[in-house]
Design a protein that fits this description.
Layout (H helix, E strand, L loop, with lengths): L1 E4 L14 H10 L2 E5 L10 H6 L3 E3 L2 H7 L2 E3 L6 H4 L7 E4 L7 H9 L3 E4 L14 H20 L7 E3 L2 E3 L3 E5 L3 H12 L3 E5 L3 H9 L3 E2 L20 H17 L2 E4 L14 H6 L5 E4 L16 E3 L5 E3 L9 H18 L1 E2 L4 E2 L6 H6 E4 L2 E2 L7
Parallel strand pairs: 1-2, 1-4, 2-3, 4-5, 5-6, 9-10, 9-12, 10-11, 12-13, 13-15
Antiparallel strand pairs: 6-18, 7-8, 14-15, 16-17, 18-19
Helix pairs in contact: 1-11, 6-7, 6-11
């Protein structure tokens, strides 16, 4: 089976979908791994690193797309490249399927078996293939380290002959994978951390990491069967915003992580709350690509308000640590291939009745096969 790893075309993307160590793992299975020349450059992987791992370097993107049995990317494919893949080939990447109906249809029309990594079921068995979680971990870490660099204060308490510096206050809104990593990182750096989530079990996890839980009585709230937070009613959202406002005003760093899969991110911090924060405070909005959790977020940009608050819309934040992000993403890809590998046929064994494949395969055999997208 020929596996092709193309260069990512998005100017904000620094990752590659396979690292050299994972290329070696796939060649060990019997795959012919082809890497587009320069694809690993922003992640500090050279063409030579891949060649040492047993991969082949390609200088002809179109020919490699046409000959590959499996194409793995980080981002969704450009529309013009879908038809370049051969019929029956597999495609693995983030696809944003709820917002990319035309792309999904074109993948089906081209006869491509498309795997959407966002749709990987959140089960124990699938954890090793869960790219959303692996990347969210790094985004949570990067959010804190980026904020610490921009803040005009230090994070830990420091006692010196010249006086004592109080620890900085960090407020994390949304205690999912990214939020938990943000809490852990901020605590390691010595900050005083407060956290909020609509799910009581998530707040317990935050407390286990040393954060102070902000508990707001929102009535009935719970997570989805996939572990995500459910969308709040307008009344619940307004109550949440009001209770958060005081904590935001007292915080040096606020990190928001609330994403709604397939939908626009909810606004959790309004302009009037931002204006109450102290000059020099930092807000890092991890939901910037989905519209943002903060009124005033501009995706891919850092905005300084008239009151001197810095709103960071850098995205995706895991691209600030592209080598490790690529290692983790590549591990998810390699684990997917290995998990479904047919050693006798030297290829992936497709089975749409398999719970994991049924959950993440969107198109197959010229049709849209995932139940959520057939209509």
């Amino acid at each position: 089976m020929e596996v092709f790893i193309p260069n990512e075309l998005d100017p904000h993307e620094a990752r590659i979908s396979l690292a050299p160590t994972l290329a070696k793992k796939l060649t060990g299975l019997g795959c012919n791994v082809v890497i587009e020349s320069g694809a690993g450059g922003l992640s500090e992987f050279s063409d030579g690193d891949f060649e040492k791992a047993g991969a082949t370097i390609s200088n002809d993107r179109s020919a490699s797309l046409a000959s590959a049995d499996l194409v793995a990317r980080v981002r969704k494919p450009p529309a013009e490249e879908v038809a370049k893949q051969k019929k029956g080939a597999l495609h693995l990447s983030f696809l944003d399927p709820f917002n990319e109906g035309d792309l999904i249809k074109s993948l089906a029309d081209a006869g491509i078996t498309a795997v959407s990594l966002e749709m990987m079921p959140r089960t124990t068995l699938a954890q090793k293939m869960d790219a959303l979680s692996s990347q969210a971990n790094l985004a949570g870490y990067a959010a804190v380290t980026l904020a610490a660099q921009r803040l005009s204060k230090i994070l830990p308490m420091m006692m010196t002959p010249a006086g004592t510096l109080s620890p900085s206050k960090v407020f994390v809104i949304g205690v999912g994978v990214a939020g938990l990593q943000a809490i852990a990182t901020a605590k390691r750096l010595g900050a005083r951390v407060t956290a909020f989530d609509t799910r009581p079990e998530a707040l317990e996890q935050a407390e286990s990491l040393g954060a102070k839980a902000l508990r707001i009585d929102l009535g009935q709230t719970s997570g989805t069967d996939q572990g995500y937070a459910k969308e709040l009613t307008p009344e619940q959202l307004e109550k949440q915003r009001s209770a958060q406002a005081k904590v935001c005003a007292e915080s040096d760093i606020v990190i928001t992580t609330a994403k709604l899969f397939g939908r626009k991110a909810p606004i959790l911090i309004t302009k009037d709350v931002v204006d109450q924060m102290a000059r020099g405070s930092i807000i890092v909005d991890l939901a910037a690509e989905g519209g943002g959790n903060v009124e005033g977020t501009v995706v891919y940009e850092d905005v300084t308000t008239e009151s001197g608050v810095h709103i960071i819309g850098t995205a995706p934040l895991e691209c600030l640590v592209p080598q490790h992000a690529s290692l983790m993403f590549g591990s998810n890809i390699a684990n997917f291939i290995e998990h479904f590998w047919d050693d006798e046929a030297k290829s992936l064994k497709l089975d749409l009745e398999d719970p994991l494949q049924k959950g993440c395969i969107i198109t197959h055999g010229g049709n849209i096969v995932h139940e959520s997208f057939k209509a």
